[in-house]
Amino acid sequence: MYRIVDATATQPDVIALVAALDRYQTALYPAESNHLVDLASFAQASLILRKIIYQQDAVGCGAVLLNPDGSAEMKRVFIDPAHRGQQLGEKLIAALEQAAIDKGCHTLRLETGIEQHAAVKLYQCCGYQVREAFAPYSADPLSIFMEKKLLSA
Asked: How do the domains of the chain map onto residue ranges?
């Protein structure tokens, strides 16, 4: 049985999942199109982080970085390939969205890459729509920017 639980950016299992995501993205995109952030560099009050546990192992993670204006950015969503195809991505995104709503977030944005077809499909299925680049990003032909309204602003 899978469980989604609170996490911190300094937990070894979260660090390992993020490292696996970094390796995957580094193989797909050049450095200038990789927007890899260190979740541990953000204040705990502005970070929502969840991980998916299967038995005793972390098999997925995702984060939301809250902005003072009520918007937020989803980052570091990753499911171990051995555990994909079980709607874990949808459940993780729903958990992150609910946590963001609970913190007063009205709009959730994300950046993903054009080669991450499964991720784009997942986000679209969860109600995210393509939009133009948002700060701090610039337009990038290798990036796809998406957004979902969670609450009325």
From this structure: 2-149
- For 16, what's the count of Cα atoms within 13 Å in the CB-facing half-sphere? 9
> How far is it, in rounded angstroms, from Cα 145 to Cα 127?
13
- CB-count exposure of residue 127 (10 Å: 0-12, 13-18, 19+): middle
Mention the CATH class of domain 2-149. Answer: alpha beta
Listing DSSP states for the chain in one string gives -EEEEE--TT-HHHHHHHHHHHHHHHHHS-GGG-----GGGS-GGGEEEEEEEETTEEEEEEEEEE-TTSEEEEEEEEE-GGG-SSSHHHHHHHHHHHHHHHTT--EEEEEEETT-HHHHHHHHHTT-EEE---TT----TTEEEEEEE-S--
Along the 153 residues of the chain, how does pLDDT read in single tens digits? Answer: 999 999 999 999 999 999 999 999 999 999 999 988 999 999 989 999 999 999 999 999 999 999 999 999 999 999 999 999 999 999 999 999 999 999 999 999 999 999 999 999 999 999 999 999 999 999 999 999 999 999 765
